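Thread: magnesium ion complex, take 2
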Amino acid sequence: MAVQETVDHKYVYDFAEGNKDLKDLLGGKGANLAEMTNLGLPVPPGFIITTEACKAYLATGEEPAGLAGQIATHLEALEREMGRRLGDPDDPLLVSVRSGAKFSMPGMMETVLNVGLNDRSVVGLSAQAGGNDRFAWDSYRRLIQMFGKTVCEVPGEEFEHALDEAKRAKGTTNDLDLDADDLRGLVDAYKRIFVKHTGREFPQEPREQLDLAIRAVFESWNAERAVVYRRQERIPADLGTAVNVVSMVFGNLGPDSGTGVAFTRDPGSGAQGIYGDYLANAQGEDVVAGIRNTVPLQELEQLDKKSYDELLAFMARLEGHYKDLCDIEFTIERGKLWMLQTRVGKRTAAAAFVIAGQLVDEGLIDLDEALHRVNGAQLAQLMFPRFRLDHEFQPVAKGIGASPGAASGKVVFTSARAVELAAEGESVILVRRETNPDDLNGMIASQGILTSRGGKTSHAAVVARGMGKTCVSGADEIDVNVPAKRFTVAGQTVNEGDIVSIDGTTGKVYLGEVPVMPSEVVQYFEGSIEPEHIDNPLVRAVHRIMTHADGKRRLAVRTNADTGADAARARRFGAQGIGLCRTEHMFLGDRRELVERLILARTDDERDSALAALLPLQRDDFVEIFREMDGLPVTVRLIDPPLHEFLPPLEQLAVNVAVAQERGEDVAKEEALLAAVRRMHEENPMLGLRGVRLGLVIPGLFAMQVRAIAEAAVAVTRAGAVAKPEIMVPLVGAVQELETVRAEAEKIIAEVVGDSGVEVLIGTMIEVPRAALTAGQIAEAAQFFSFGTNDLTQMAWGFSRDDVEGAFFWRYLELGIFGISPFESIDRDGVGRLVRIAAEEGRAARPELKLGVCGEHGGDPDSVHFFHEVGLDYVSCSPFRVPVARLEAGRAAVETDGSDSR
Ligand code: ADP
Ligand code: MG
Ligand code: MG
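Output below.
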């Protein structure tokens, strides 16, 4: 046997040969069965067929050479160990054939129980069970049902229907009331269904049953629903599944038998305790299938104290061993406990933090590991407001939590109606079967989006996440009728204008308005909960892990903020400065008039007077921000967008002028504006007269801003605070641009600052690919670089950021051209390469060069890890993302093994 196996590729492993680290080869279920076996827990003996065998089968449509022989060898060994032969008429060994991929895909793939039963061995099984006919026939009908459905594609409803029919004939709804004769009759009915759909008799040969079931598990890897699920969860398509062949133990032998599931902690809240469900006299899936009402696991203590105590001991053992929350499947056969599955259990975001904190307390893991076990996406989820749910509110439907948050509002079915109602100040939920690019305005106007079709990468989901809007997608119980302006769900009709509430985290949909409560975690970050007074276990865990992350991280975290209020909030959230203060809002509102004067100026004097009027307004803005950020650096970006963005749109102006002319009014000013707008019109404004180009073309504009910054810094410093301004020039592509701006700025700074002690740095954004590629030259003139990864992505890919996400990204995601929008998470290979080049060459030219990033990517978990790897000094992100960036920067610093951040 050993000789043969070294010749053949090894496709089959005994449980004793595996362990929990072999998930790639043995799948999660198999690896953990092996681990439990080796721990000495009572696992029914069995063997595992590897994912490699599955991949070989899927590639060729045939079992690879050697597989059949290896299965025979392992089956014989199993038969010897159990003292029974598969399907033996007098004393049959029965097995389950269970799928199990590397990542758990709940309910996606197939399992067949009781393989080995046939018309003869069913009699033997009964005799071995002490003449328990009922049990034997119940097991047989289950085999035909599962085998028919999963191996031969017989519609499952047909079996369900026959079962219902048998119960009806008996005048009961409880399957336990069916006796041996009823079940024998049911087996006959099932066999007829089998013949009808497959054109053949139910296979009686045990080894044939086994082989067909194994093949079906292989094939279930490519079942439609599994493919869809993998795409949604971003599980690679080429992993394949392992197959576990496990000797059967029986929970359906009578009241002293049963089956259950257990969690070592509450996967919802993380609370310690015993959570699970138990069902007496039942097999396998009955617990989750809701066939009968389960009892809470605690009640097992009354039913079977010995098994209960043993189970608790095993659970403690597994937790100690895996050092994490485990979930477990078990079966009790006549008072003997068997462990059928375990894995590190899924959990909510809150539970992830709480459990990590508890495990540190228990000495099972250290704080580095705790930090590794949580992530920024979970933290972000905990920062959204939540619905205040009590029993009054029951969801009417559940879709996919496509974009987190909690939103309530009036139902609308069209984009136009959404815009209309929103303009009246209503909060609205846009409900569609699926959205398309025409719905964009409606999506912007809505509080949330609800669709009945599509997954996490549907148009609605992608666009909503991009906009930070709550979205539930694929709620397929909802029947949307757009022309009739209504949807129906669970027998109820919801009309336009009715109120619904959607939870973008859980995917649940509620009728009516569910009250919203603020996040405790945000309250803590805002400082309204003192660390010493935290009694909420979640907040305590967050505090502890965040403190550790702050201690470990090498990246500083700054914020993007344009106002004193934003700056103050971000500072409370832990921002260590401002990485991007945009100045364009300082040209809006009642200041537009000054901008118009600036644009229309015919002489130097007119222009200078407009600038002079803007100067004190700008200075006041900066004073407020510098004061809030006392002692911390503030990077101010000189004006970036094209100036005509501050003028009214062309069409509107044209109409105004025409109407006024009609009335014979004096339209000289409007005409001049109109002419200016026409003159300044650009086909590609994003690539037009903006950023540093504006500064070079409009004399005095940048000079005014530089003066306002310097004067504000001096004023704040004189008042006793510390201002640390950093002036950032946008859209630089060539060092000469920066040199020109810098020469003028330095003169003004020297003049304003005098002996006040204020120091002003001058640097540039790196957001044009040419700047990244000539970073060595640009660094000669820059004291810092800040990567503007939004524009850099836009220009590196040639994607118009404002158009493409809604227009076609869904298709790109569907095709797998990228797994996530490059505007959401940095494209490491392309845009990231530009960042690397610029960082390396910039530092080579000027070792003390400060490097940061101020695009949206600064708050994206994966991107933060990338910026850590590249060695930037800081990331800057919107105030709400600051805690997320702090956490992820900490994780990046403790993750030495290079494992991915998800
Ligand atoms: P899933 O991955 O969908 O949970 P499983 O392979 O775990 O599927 O099996 C389905 C059900 O059958 C589970 O409840 C499991 O505990 C039960 N089961 C699987 N194998 C056996 C066995 N050998 N003896 C008894 N019950 C089993
Ligand atoms: Mg299972
Ligand atoms: Mg930019």
